[in-house]
Design goal:
Chain A: Keywords: Membrane, Transmembrane, Transmembrane helix. The structure holds 2 protein chains of 2 kinds. Chain A is mainly beta. Chain A has 2 helices and 19 strands. A 5-stranded mixed sheet of chain A has the order 1-16-15-12-13, with no helix packed on it. A 4-stranded mixed sheet of chain A has the order 5-2-8-9, with helices on one face. Chain A has a 4-stranded antiparallel sheet with strand order 4-3-6-7, with no helix packed on it. Helices cover about 0% and strands about 40% of the residues of chain B. The chains are: A mainly beta, B mainly beta. β14 of chain A pairs parallel with β3 of chain B, so a sheet runs across the interface.
Chain lengths: ~270, ~200
Amino acid sequence: MADDVRTGVRPGIRSRGPRALSTRRAVLGGLATAGLAGALLTAGLLPSGASDKATLYLVQGLPGDKISFTVNGKTLASDVAGAQVVGPFSVSAGKVTFGFGWDGKQQLTRTMEVKAGSNSDVVLHLPAQGSGETVTTFRNDLAAVPQGKANLTVAHVAAVPAADIQVDGKVLFANVANGESLNLTVPAETYSVKIVPTGKDSPVILGPLKLSVKAGSLNRVYAFGRPSDKTMNVAVHTIAVRNSGSSAPNRVPTGSGGLALDSRPAPIGELLR
Amino acid sequence: MQSGCAGPQSAAPAPAAPSVRSSANASSTPAEPSPEPVREGRPARPNLAFRPTRIELPGGSSAAVVPAATVNGVLSVPENVQHVGWWDGSALVGDPYGATVIAGHIDSATEGLGFFSRLLSLRTGEQVVVRGAAATDAPDATVRHAAFRITSVRTVAKDALSSDSQAFEQDGPRRLVLITCAGAYLPSRGGYQSNLVVVAEPLG
């Protein structure tokens, strides 16, 4: 039975609208992805000075725990349940220290060298095997996407070995290990998604579940949890991006000479004027 | 993990003064270990989808492919009839779904026969090769290429083109679609009355 996937972004802190726009402005000043910087240079929106800020989101990939999140000692979020995405948070570029707490105390710390203008997901999750927890950061590619399409990026942050992600019955993302991601540009639709061990059809790690991919956005899908605990789930993080390309044409007028008089496909030598 | 020792041991003089050393280390305070850095997620492999920059037809002739935009409902292909245009809202070569649409002039009043006049002689089963540069910011500059096998060559009335299921749709199986003009040429009715639509499926 397919389940619907909830977005998991905490209400009121969604990655769309004016705050998303401000997120993109923060990206522009520094080392933005080439596509986005190029498009916005053309539009004259690139600011002249470099920003020393960056944008972060937290993706809570530990099933069952409600965690608190600190950056340089300051609490930015608390009671974050598994699958939730919180943010955006604006931080200064440079070395930052994250703290993650649950069961009443800080459990884990990590440092990150934050680059100016960057936009990243900070993901707390289980390692592929063994005990403990780990933190992996993923840069968000905010390049423009064509109308009606999306950048679908799947990431493996679960306690399983390398996996294949099947979309509508076909392996679209192959051999993804814990800490890795893959991306494809796809039409914005609802897809049936199933995760299996690489090269196999069973045992099913997660799914089949229905995934609604949002147009005009980066759609990040994180598979997290531990199958043996029956805690496998997905966290979904969408960020609106700019539109590239143009809409479908109604007409393709491609001839004005009247030279190709014969409408039936024929050898070129038989065309007469 | 290093522990810094602030005690006198770190500045111990030469072995000639052993009485300075304290074996208990009670006065030293190891510095707290600094946290580990986060792990950086990375792509399992690069996305190799590419924008077409060159198309090669059966027989070996090839032409440059440039991006073409739809303006007011009309796909504006390059005026130079020896070049062809890739609709910039269509799939990259290597995207999992949808038509990669390339259109070009069959001819023009000023330049004679165009590169895509060759489409009239294409047959089902023949191969077309498309080359291009990587869409993503890949560090290697390898020119990518993909081969397609023609599955249909059809004439479509020009007003029926936009509703033709194979021509422009961006969902469904990935395919290459080549479009030019065809059919009767009626100057009083805007010229060619039809489009020639060649559809090809990816090989390998």
